[in-house]
Amino acid sequence: MQGQAGLLDHLVDLRRTLLRSFAAVAILFLSLVYFARDLYRWLADPLMVHLPEGTSMIATDVGAPFFAPFKLTLMVAVLLAIPFLLHQIWRFIAPGLYKHERRLIAPLLISSSLLFYAGIAFAYYVVLPIAFGFFTSMAPEGVTIATDISSYLDFVLKIFFAFGIAFEIPVAILLMVWSGVVTPEQLRAKRAYVIVIVFVIGMLLTPPDIISQTLLAVPMWILYELGVLLSRFYTKKSEEPAE
Asked: I need a surface site. Which of 4, 171, 183, 210 has the fewest CB within 10 A?
């Protein structure tokens, strides 16, 4: 009976966590929905500045002018809610962690949020302008560039999430070293393989162009080296009783 009561308490706590997370995203979405068109205009800027004069983006689907900005607004709401969502995850799992685990996980949750946002910022301010400048300059003579707004949104969101996830590499490395899965020495010994792997990942996570793939692979390699450097300060801890 005690085990069943404990399981029920966990399920109630999980339900409460999910409801809070959903409410946070919903509140942010409703707060931003009025600015849906402005958000899409901001998202389109990296492409618009490279389009030939007199051209613009197009909508090939009748509902795209309405749904594309709202889809973007929902994704922005989710991205802005990430710190709160991670905090809710932290509150849910913290009671089952050891003291030294709680001391480690809390700063990692903060750093993972910052790294994710840094990846998106790098994609928006560095990768997209370079990629779109290259794409538009390579268009054959006589070809009019007219990008569909839904296709553009899907392309950019894919880039954002690819770079956001890729920038989490240092956090993943620290967790693996701290848990004893690998050692810093083993990570350094696998450096040559990692360079190949990051370029393969860049090919899989980004659209099929060498610009995006390289601009993802190189930062991933740098972040890997940063994670290896910092991992020297993390070792597997002996278990302590939870408090």
From this structure: 4
